[in-house]
Amino acid sequence: MSPLDAVLQALSCLDDVDALACLESALFMKFLTEDDLDELLRLAPDHLRSVLRRLDRGAQSGFETFTRVGFVRAGFRVETQFYVPGAGHVDMLVNGCVGVETDGEEWHGPERFLPDRSKDREVERQGIRVLRLARPHIFDTWHTTLETVRRMVSDAEDAAARKHRA
Q1: Among 126, 123, 124, which residue's Cα sits nearest to residue 87?
Q2: What does the alpha-carbon distance between residue 164 and residue 138 come to, in Å, rounded to a whole number?
Q3: What does the mean pLDDT of the chain come to?
Q4: Structural domains of the chain sorted by starting position, each given as residue range(s) with its CATH number in brackets
Q5: What global pTM score does this model have?
Q6: Cα(60)–Cα(51) distance, integer angstroms
Q7: What one-character-per-residue DSSP string does 6-35 give?
Q8: Residue among 87, 72, 77, 76 at smallest CA distance from 130
Q9: Could you please report the per-residue DSSP string of 52-100?
Q10: Which strands, in side-by-side order, build the sheet including 98-103?
Q11: Are residues 152 and 128 in contact, defined by beta-carbon separation less than 8 angstroms?
Q12: What pLDDT is recorded for position 21?
């Protein structure tokens, strides 16, 4: 079975967010080409076409897809793979003021601990709050994650407004 056929079959069985995560991951991992994507969008079931139009080529993992979609559904503005000079890319920037990193244990083991903390420090130094999320924060305690991000965004926006008035 070709990668295109495998993804198309998966899309026919998955709900909207799972389908989007599948497709974004397949693109990031280079299982699908841009030509494959065009064909897949043409062949996709009607009920998934609107979801698949929300494809974000910046997503680098299913965790990122689920997190981004959750934030957008909650009314936040989200930029993916936001570049911060001196720090690199942050998985997503929420409302222009909170950087969110989604860390799976497979990709963020002990050897990533210090580089990740150094990156966070530089992003914070530049005035962007940083929140690192692991799998349980995304899938098991999403309501608490949303409350946390709402608070962080509110605090950052309040601080920016105070600074602007001063």
Answers
A1: 123
A2: 34
A3: 90
A4: 3-52 (no CATH), 62-165 (3.40.960.10)
A5: 0.87
A6: 18
A7: HHHHHHHHS-HHHHHHHHHHHHHTTSS-HH
A8: 87
A9: HTT--TT--SHHHHHHHHHHHHTT--EEEEEEETTTEEEEEEETTTEEE
A10: 78-84, 88-94, 98-103, 129-134
A11: no
A12: 92
